[in-house]
Structures are given as structure tokens and as C-alpha cells.
Amino acid sequence: RGVLDSERATRLSRMSTEALAFDILEILRTIDPSGKRPVFCAGHDMGAAIAWTLAPLLGKRLKGLIAVNGLSTTQMLRRLFRPSQIKKSW
């Protein structure tokens, strides 16, 4: 969202990992309407959280998940609000 000719999100909720994962599902529906092609899901850093969210939504289509330098959404939420992490992120 907000890249090249796409519109910027007007609500912060449209930038959540869930919203972005559903956006990717819509792209997959466009390029593979039959839903039969296998999907390898990869994400780096914050994209890894989106990959972790997307993976179970793909069901049997998921053929692999690659998370590079990133945490699962559960791990990220556990660490996100720790004072030490807030200090590092600042």
C-alpha cells in the first residue's frame, strides 16, 4: 500500500499483518483463479510476520515457508512491548 500507483491506506488497521496477508490472497486469486498452484511463502524482517500470518491461510496450497531475519507474530507480539525492545527500536 502506498507503493508506486497504489493508494495509501487511510486507516492504520489496513496496514496490519492480517490485512496485508488478505491482500496477498487477493493477488493470488487474480493470478491463479483455480487456487491449485502451490505457493512458497517468504518474508524478510517485518515481511516475515506477514508470511507467518499468510501461511495457515493458504492451507494445502502452502508448499514452504521461509522467514528470514524475522519472528513469528506470536514471538513479535511477546517482545514488541518490552522496555528493552522499545529502547532498541527508538
What does this structure look like?
The chain is an alpha+beta fold and 90 residues long. The protein is built from four helices and two strands, in the order αβαβαα. The chain has helices at 17-31, 46-58, 73-80, 83-89, and strands at residues 39-44, 62-68. A two-stranded parallel ribbon has the order 1-2. Helix 1 packs across helix 2 (46-58). The radius of gyration is 15 Å and the shape is globular. The chain starts with 16 loop residues before the first helix and ends with a helix. The model has no long low-confidence stretch (mean pLDDT 87).
Record keyword descriptors for this entry.
single chain, alpha+beta, two-stranded parallel ribbon, 2 strands, globular
Query: What is the SS-derived class?
Result: alpha+beta
Helix content: 40-55%
The main sheet comes to:
2 strands, parallel
Beta-strand portion reads: 5-15%
> Which geometry do the CA atoms define?
globular
Report, as a whole number of angstroms, the end-to-end distance.
24 Å
Kindly summarize this structure in a few lines.
With 90 residues, the chain is an alpha+beta fold. It is built from four helices and two strands.
Helices and strands in order, then pairings?
Layout: H1 17-31, E1 39-44, H2 46-58, E2 62-68, H3 73-80, H4 83-89
Parallel strand pairs: 1-2
Helix pairs in contact: 1-2
